[in-house]
Amino acid sequence: MSKSTNLKVRLPVLVLVLEVVILALYAVFVTYDDNTNAKLQNNETDPMQNSLYRDYPYFADVQVMIFIGFGCLLAFFRFYGFSGMVFNFLTATFTIQWAILIQGFFQFYHDGKIYLGVINLLNAEFACAVVLISFGAVLGKTGPVQLLVMALLEIPVFSLTEWAVLKYIRINDAGGTILIHMFACYFGLGVTFVLYRPSLNNGHPKETTSYHSDILSVMGTLFLWVFWPSFNSALTFKGDDQHRAILHTFIGLSSSTITAFALSAVFHKRGKLTMADIQNVTLAGGVTVGASVDMMISPVAAYALGVMGCTACFFGYKYLTPFLAQRMRIQDQCGIHNLHGLTGLISSIAGICAILLASEETYGPSLYQIFSHRAPPEGDPKLLELQELIPGLKPGLGRTAQEQALYQVAAVFATIAASTVGGLLTGLVMKLPFMAAPSDEDCFDDELFFNTPPDFESVDALKNLISLEEKEKTSSVNTKV
């Protein structure tokens, strides 16, 4: 390990500074919310009404996706399994701590305090997913110091964008298509554009997979696949909205999965399946249904969205990713633009169509609960009528379906712009010489940052083995001759 990548000082100092800052901020600002404060409990309180029992199952499911799903999925490189899983673990743990604070200031701050409950942790996990998706664009080409700095800078940009879009543009985005998937995608592309490495366009000897690394990566895919309905439905209205979200997500994932198998076989010259397609393209349906996941789009629409998302994602991996690397200086290592960008765009368009078609004939009075910004404003006589049918219905903005659709379009462009600029600026910081970035030669290699075990298969050992096998084959042929 050269001095430029040695972590002996850099990583401990950065972690110490971050911990001191977080400790100080938690001490000053963070306290218990009403559902965690012992002083607010009494003998008349039903413990089962605590928000823990409503929110924790979703928190646990998303936590499995973050730490196991993403971790295993990112371990597909043959010589980069430690780094893929462990850097995911490190980055995710810090990101959630940091997001509790930053998001807390935007969403849970009042009376000079951030009131903490399980719902904060769930929101922080969604913010964490944003960082981990962006991480996929620079996988193998960055070190732990760079990744922590990336998380440190991305969370404030994301939280500010999320707050501005939800407060001022006001959109429907139950599955996080715009504010999670699209933001993460274009932030990651902005970072990798700045960190462009010309020599990597010609391939790298360590940029390869193995039998065992591919199996581990598919395990990550399966964890993400199984728990994705929780991800898409966690923040929807309880009841029929959440029920639809779970159904639509499962149907979309199912259709994208079988489509991925078909496409993988038909576009292989020998009709075989490609593991990269199974690891990534099968998940496309979960993203594609996201923007309309809680709406009355019908099961057949969810199925069709899964097929469309899968198809776009597959051809994106096949054609668009190489084009971006060769012509646009965007080396998207995990193809996040295909799984989160292209599918996010399809999902956003589907959501806009669903909003334009939404009517009281289809939804009944709940139209103004699902599309809350279309509810009548304060003082409108119709609001009082609706509140008799739906107790607790809040005043809206009185938007028409067409107006809400235009705001959805504005949110897409605003999110892409904010995330791209944020990614470019973050990339410039990550490129500073003291960030312990690996050299081109050391990319995709665990040995650079880890004390690897004796049975670690280095690329040099692999070359020697291949050379030995070739010599044995040559010797065998000569003997037969």
From TrEMBL:
Membrane topology value: Multi-pass membrane protein
Domain (Ammonium transporter AmtB-like) ranges: 47-434
The entry's keywords: Ammonia transport, Cell membrane, Glycoprotein, Membrane, Transmembrane, Transmembrane helix, Transport
GO molecular function per UniProt: ammonium channel activity
Major site of localization recorded for this protein: membrane
Family membership noted in the UniProt record: Belongs to the ammonium transporter (TC 2.A.49) family. Rh subfamily.
PANTHER family referenced in this protein's UniProt entry, alphabetically: AMMONIUM TRANSPORTER, AMMONIUM TRANSPORTER AMTB-LIKE DOMAIN-CONTAINING PROTEIN
Job of this protein: Functions as an ammonia transporter. May play a role in the elimination of ammonia in the gill.
Identification of the protein by name: Rh50-like protein
Native source organism of the sequence: Austrofundulus limnaeus
